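To whoever is covering the structure queue this week,

Two jobs came back overnight. Logging them here so there's a record in the thread.

Job A:
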Amino acid sequence: MKILLFGAYGLLMESIIVKLHKEGHELFVVTGRKIPEDHHEGTIDAYFVEYADSSLYYVFESIKPEAVIYTGAFDERFHWKEQSDSAKYLAGLNNIILSSIKANVSKFVYFSTTDIYDDSIHKEKLGEHSTTISNGGLREMTVQSGEDFILRYKNSSKTKFIILRCSDIYGECNGQFYMDSFFIYSLQKALQKQTVVVEKGKMHNMISVQDVTEALVQIIKTEELPHMIYNIASEEIIGEEEFLDIYQGVLAERPLQNIVESIHPTQGEISCETAKKDFGFNLRGNFKQLFPEIFRKFKVYFDEQTGEVKKKGKFRQIRERFARIFKWSYPYIETIVAFFVFFLFDRLTVQVKYFRVVDFYILYVTLIAIIHGKGKAIIAIILSFLGYSINYGGIGQGTMIDYNTFIWVLQLLILGMGVGYVRDNNEQRIADEKENVEAISRELVDIKEINNSNVRIKQVYEERLLNYKDSFARIYSIVTQLNDLEPDKIMIASIDVVQKIMNVTDVAIYNVGKDSYYGRLAASSKNMTGNTKKSLKLEDMGSVYQDIKEHRIFMNTEVDPQKPDMAGGVFHGEVLEALIIIQNIPFENMTLYHSNLFAVLLNLIAQSMHTAFIYLEESAISRYIKNTKILNPRSFERILQIQEEGQEQKNTEFFVLEVINDKKKSLEELDHEISSLLRQHDYLGVDESGKLFILVTNTNKTEAHFVIDRLESKGIHINREISKEEET
């Protein structure tokens, strides 16, 4: 199974990766950080993007995961010290949920925490339906809001959402510990011989990370889970003061403590019976028994971390300080060292006639100006003057006021400043060009990302044009189901058409007769058969009927539970012939596009219905027995076949009654007596043997008895023993 994990690398994430990798699953990770990290053994790929990033959906598109696991309350990316953590958490979670729904992820597991329970009264175990806190800490309120997000989406998609409320996790996996727990916090303080802040009476329910991971594996393996929320907790309840007693056993002394009044609800005993019953959750770890081994491993980890930090910190400070000093002083050191080199050459060659025409100081100043620019060239000129004075007469013997010396210094100054100016200008131009290149390079990276995004979008739309659910070819292939000349067949086919085109499951169609005040159920989807009203009084529908009457599509933007999510009318001219309502539309499909798509479907259904009615009017002679509205055997058998097909698809219900003609009345007389007692879409028909039957649409066995009683009260006798029954 392809599984996409959300969370920073930490204890829970490490344990999940190790376990699921052993189980043979393909694992992908989104860390929530933009900084790349080392590839984790056991995962196929990692994505370093923010949870709320718009590009996250493309991650889902490329992986096509079957399950998503969001570490949530135990995601060590969040430390819950700033309010911005809450905003990032909820924005990211909402983006992940929407992306999962769009990608048709089959299972979404969300890690919550039992800290959200309000345990102010300790009378019974805390179950999944226990009251949650209304004013807790930032972490608890944010995680609880995350649960609310999930509960809003639970009925709007095919994704199965699972919420795991876990207590404080402990343990070790590949050198990882859960650093945000009171257990690790207090243990660190104890090892550092610092004071531990203890809340008086505060209790913690401890569970090993291995038990949590085993529960997750069982949830992934279990195809159908009857519940949505599960407690994953142990029966070990430990007070904060008791933690220090446990530490005393291995530290040989009790850690220092500062007791304060508890500001959080005290954690009580938590019930896990639902998890045990549904997927066999079983506790194995015992905190007090496992603590010595965990302490030993954490002590090694603690010593390595503190020793390494001290060593690296001291060395890094010295190195960085030395690097800054050296970087600043290097041009000056190079200028001075170069001066001594040229000064030495000048002094050694002062009496050599071959070097009399060579001015080493001009070469020196020019070299420094070329390398370091005007600023260091001035220092070079000053040093050159001092060196010249020492080699050619000494300072204070008239050299400084000598005319030739003045001209020589002026020459150095013009040469040094000129070369330095050109050098500085070139350096500035190169720096500007480099900055422009870097800016253009960044833009090029952005353009590449935009281009990649456009390529992906192009591919998506190409796929949509070819075989996506909204492509013209696919819509045409579905709508061809409406090409029939039987209104009943069109009604039943319309259910399937609306379901496929609108991507919904709950659809119902009501017939509305001319000048009728009621809509009679004609067909409905499987989920709604038997669970929806058989008739609707149009005036009682309020704004729904008002929009339909004015040829508009009704959309339940106010999320009123008493109204359908979307509804529209099938019209012939200005006459409302049918009413189609849709329930449980996915949230992302409540758009203008889908409203317009629904309007097009209604027009197509109306055209098919109109064509069918014209056909029925023109073929009345061949369909009905002369001078009656009784269907001949062939036509009646056709209607019966359509109803049977609809019932097999669970779109409709019907019941067939046999009329007893004990008084030997003619078919014309029976038609006159019975037709007025039937609804508009019920049928009278005869079989090959000449027996008369009544086909009652959208009626089950129980409701058929009321029809029989009504008919018999008018003198129409029904054969109760051999009435044809067709039930779901």
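Job B:
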Amino acid sequence: MRNVLHQLKQYKKNTFLCIGLTTLEVIMEILLPFVTSLIIDQGLEAQNMPAVYRYGILMIVCAALGLVFGALGGRYAASASAGLSANLREAIYRNIQTFSFSNIDKFSVPSLVTRMTTDITNVQFAFMMVIRVAVRAPLNLIFSFAMCMIISPHLSSMFLIAVAFLVIVIGTIMVVTLKIFNQVFRRYDDLNASVQENVSAIRVVKAFVREEHENVKFSKASKMLYDLSVKAEGLLAFNNPAMMVAVYFCIISVSWFGAKFIVGGSMSTGDLTSLFSYIMSLLMSLMMLSMVVVMISMSLASVRRISEILNEKPDITDPEQPIMAVPDGRIDFNHVNFSYKHGSGKNALADIDLHIKSGETIGVIGGTGSGKSSLVNLICRLYDVDDGSVCVGGNDVRSYDTEVLRNQVSVVLQKNTLFSGTILENLRWGNPDATDEECIKACKAACADEFIDRMPDGYNTRIERGGANVSGGQKQRLCIARALLKKPKVLILDDSTSAVDTATDASIRAAFAREIPGTTKIIIAQRVSSVQSADRILVLDNGRINAFDTHENLLKTNEIYQDIYTSQLQGGGDFDQPA
């Protein structure tokens, strides 16, 4: 809760102004029944019209001031609550940007989206109710009860019975519903996950005619959310009946005993009239408090989920005195062990001892799950090792400033992502200051110029969200060009030419040798033709190094490499290569 409220920042002033104005509004409202009793007792019953006019004007002034204070309080409440939600979204988004891959693995994407939308909206509404209604209702209740005690201490004891009854009922409801709302928000995550997966893979769903299956899966997730929501709302429905019981108990009790006091002469008609007004004000305050309790019980689950993101600390942090320059592209793995869940004993990489010279071209090949992507993720420090060390340029990657390291270790990941904007805007993710000529040169090296030149707007062609309007091979080549613009010491291609034909693949590799000879190049591929011209080839098997040698030597000595080579080339070749 403290972390959430800390995000008020510049809106603290609006919050306190709202509380102050709400207090003044309550005072004005509390004075109205008191003035009404004066009009009845000292004006109407005494037939004193000047007193009626005098107290009538006072009543109008109090009402007008209450209206002004209420309107201003509402305005500041809206400003403070909306400001809090804006700051929370910004703080969560900023913290997510600092997460390492291991941090992101803890939270699913749908869960993060729900926390930044539904959960923050719940907190916004709850905060508005707290600084507006939760301030107004207790003050109204206290002042009303105080006035009731002044008018008739005996009758005021009836309210204490009603209050005790409501506190027990509302407290029980809150405890039970809080547990249910915790489950509700987890179901929201499941529902969002189902929607995101279905929409992002809609082409696959339609290609395999799985619409009905997806509808059933979504309906199941929706039904579970519906059942929990109905259960929670069903419990909250007891609020109103309990409130009505308290209201009618007080009205009947005050009417019965008040009539006797008037007949006995111990209470005036004006006092009884104002007492009824204070009764309704007091009970309405309790009703508003019950609404606040409901909203808070919902928002507490949201606050907890938001706090989880705000409290999450990045696993990867910079040292106190980081190295601010990468000398060269030398890479050393010194007996590295790595697992995605530290301490689980399930290593993705085991005892990797590997040494690569600056400027070398290294091919990496192996079966699915052999640890190829895990290996290169450690070079740019997307994850940290469990044991051993990874060095770039002769220094442990953990001793560098993270931004400096990643600017010199350029990675084209398996999942290529383009953003909405022009081709030039996407390319400049690699280097914001790159000139048009530098962008064109990088595209030529990545063999992307040939399809860009055919587009109507050339390099100013707009890319749709996720690169929906370009093919897989075009997307890969644009991502390679974007990485080249960084002019890195190390370039990693994680199966990044799988969607291009072998002729284009060969042209890209030739351009690398020509344009960036001093850059260390690590090429992960499934095709032997993509790595056979590399200086050395690393064969991985089940997270361990099986072999590390040239193409010719591996063909003579390594069984895994021989099997891959035979199945791909002698068995018919690549898809666009003659057998």
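Note for Job B: Residues 572-579 have pLDDT under 50 and may be disordered.

Please reply-all if you pick these up so we don't duplicate work.
Q.
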